[in-house]
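Retry 2 of 3 after timeout on previous attempt. Resubmitting structure tokens to design endpoint.
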């Protein structure tokens, strides 16, 4: 990896630019593959391999990629739902202090979770059907010992209003609500402890398009109102283009490209990004017809046995012999972008707005 790129993508421990809320550095998560009755470790699934990214205060960072690319694992590692195999996660707490989450014990991490929350994909299974809205939304406050019973009730009523639900619903159970409303209950719960960072994992993927759009608008309003920072994980490129300030593209546990959203969609620098964009039908800018969808060639490789060299090379239409032997590094390029391709400067790739 060139020196300049190295220093851009992996700054030293403890250093974090003032405008960054959370920074992951050289993050790795390997899951052991066990075999036989002795459960001997015979290999590892490299679910996340050397991911570095910064998310700035108040921005929405979109993480895209096919199923199996590792994007949800990155979010779970950031919130320490999984232990890291290696790497570092730096987070700027409410008092401005930078905390290395990778070193925290479970107990210390529980305190940090007041500032970091997650919204899950499935609004049906993520809410306990036996709990009322008061219990569901108030539970984080109860767990963290925040407020008396009366204060929790008032706060839950306020949060229901904030997410567009009537406070009178406070004693109802989730089954009385639609999928979109249940997702709003999940958002209210995530907001209960005034977090600064929310990771939304395919948060609106299970919803109808119009309901999803309403909830996305709600999330954008809440971001402005409460100064929230979002990590928005989705396989939906249209959604990510709409909501994100910057985007990271993941493939087989690695970041292939990061860029400001408009630049990424106008001019992708990585062949995988181009292929993802081509796989979504786009309106033809010259008329009302839809530009043809070009399905992505082949399947995502096995993370237990990734291809040598560039992990994307078996599917890449631009692959050269070196791509099968030498793994490209994620390196900084002009415009505050990063790319992991030997030939990024030589290729002229097609975006969706060209
Ligand atoms: Fe394609 Fe080679 Fe670039 Fe990988 S390094 S994306 S195989 S051109």
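Retry 2 succeeded. Sequence:
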């Amino acid at each position: 990896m060139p020196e300049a790129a190295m220093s851009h993508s992996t700054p030293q421990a403890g250093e974090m630019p003032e405008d960054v809320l959370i920074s992951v550095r050289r993050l790795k998560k390997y899951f052991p593959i066990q075999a036989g009755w002795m459960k001997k470790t015979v290999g590892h699934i490299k679910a996340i391999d050397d991911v570095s990214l910064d998310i700035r205060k108040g921005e929405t960072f979109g993480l895209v990629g096919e199923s199996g690319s590792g994007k949800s694992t990155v979010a779970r590692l950031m919130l320490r739902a999984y232990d890291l195999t290696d790497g570092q996660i730096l987070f700027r707490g409410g008092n401005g202090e930078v905390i290395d989450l990778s070193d925290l014990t479970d107990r210390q991490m529980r305190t940090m979770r007041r500032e970091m929350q997650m919204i899950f994909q499935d609004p049906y299974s993520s809410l306990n059907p036996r709990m009322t809205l008061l219990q569901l939304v108030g539970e984080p406050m109860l767990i963290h010992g925040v407020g008396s019973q009366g204060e929790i009730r008032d706060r839950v009523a306020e949060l229901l209003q904030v997410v567009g639900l009537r406070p009178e619903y406070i004693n109802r159970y989730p089954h009385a609500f639609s999928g979109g409303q249940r997702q709003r209950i999940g958002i209210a719960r995530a907001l209960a402890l005034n977090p600064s960072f929310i990771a939304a994992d395919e948060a609106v993927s299970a919803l109808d398009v119009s309901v999803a759009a309403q909830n996305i608008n709600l999330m954008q309003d809440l971001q402005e109102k409460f100064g929230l920072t979002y990590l928005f994980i989705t396989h939906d490129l249209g959604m990510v283009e709409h909501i994100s300030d910057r985007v990271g593209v993941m493939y087989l546990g690695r970041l292939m490209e990061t860029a400001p959203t408009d630049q990424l969609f106008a001019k992708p620098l990585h062949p995988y990004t181009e292929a993802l964009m081509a796989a979504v039908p786009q309106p033809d800018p010259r008329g009302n017809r839809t530009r043809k969808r070009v399905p992505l060639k082949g399947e995502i490789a096995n993370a237990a046995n990734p291809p040598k060299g560039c992990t994307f090379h078996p599917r890449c239409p631009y692959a050269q012999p070196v791509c099968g032997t030498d793994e490209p590094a994620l390196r900084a390029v002009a415009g505050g972008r990063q790319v992991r391709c030997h030939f990024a400067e030589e290729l002229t790739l097609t975006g969706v707005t060209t």
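Attempt log closed. The radius of gyration is 21 Å.
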